[in-house]
Amino acid sequence: MKKATMITWAMVCAGLLPVRADLISNPVAEGAITVDASRADWAGLTSYTPDAQDAGAGEVDFQTFTLAHDGDELFIRYTTYDGPGFGSAWRYNIFLDIDQNRATGYIGGSSQFSVGADVLIQGATAFSFAGGDQTTFSWNLVGGGSYNELANDLEITMARANLTGLDQQFNWIAFGDNGTPDYVPDGSSGGSGGSFHTYVVPEPGTALLLAGGLAVAGLARRRMRMA
To answer: What are the start-end ranges of the H helices in the chain?
Structure first.
């Protein structure tokens, strides 16, 4: 093992580097997913590991997340155990680390995020980070997406053109801002040693031509976990 690799692994074990939880990719054909009252078009797609039921009654308590994409859109579906409903959209936050670099983007008011978020999807609206430093909550409006809320089951579509740089893979975490904070994955509030999920975004038409490493794991829709 090379010395640099040994040092990096030691930093991971010491909790000094963030750790990937799940890596997934769900490329779909154009028009395969529509935002409506049916969820049948999500059948067969791979979801991230379900989050534990760990928030208080009536608070945002995330359960499952599934992401997918076609050539133009990013699709997000999540379910909750409980929550105040999407009318309180500001309580439902997904932070995307587009450049996969914690040294850029928002890391939380107390530096608690495992990622440096370049984009915030709050409810069904996207914002780009504009803080003067990484702990200042300041965002510029990018644009809104379409959504459908079905009880505790929500699906959103966002134009990929509005999410600059979203063309390979990105890390992400979710934050339920309602009483007891709910983080997805659970370890994503661990700062620089926390955990995050990753989503891979190859073009659907070329997805099966990729080979090797993380791309194949994502495109085969198999979940990778790091113990």
So the answer is: 3-13, 213-219
What is the sign of the dihedral through the CA atoms of 84, 86, 89 and 93? positive
Write out the residue range of the structural domain in which residue 138 sits: 19-219
Question: At 94, which CATH number?
Answer: 2.60.40
Query: In this structure, is residue 186 part of a structural domain?
Result: yes
Q: Confirm whether 150 is domain-assigned.
A: yes
153 beta partners: 79, 150
Contact criterion met (CB below 8 Å) for 64 and 78: yes
In a domain, 49, yes or no: yes
Of the ranges 18-22, 73-77, 113-117, which one carries the lowest mean pLDDT score?
A: 18-22
pTM for this prediction: 0.82
What would the pLDDT profile of 163-192 be if each residue is shown by its tens digit? Answer: 888 888 999 999 999 888 999 999 999 999
In a domain, 195, yes or no: yes
What is the number of domains present in the chain? 1
Taking only the tens place, the pLDDT of each residue in 29-51 is 999 999 999 999 999 999 999 99
For residue 156 the two structure tokens come to: 């959103």
Mark 99-111 as b/e (b = at least 16 C-beta within 10 Å). Answer: ebebeebbbbeee
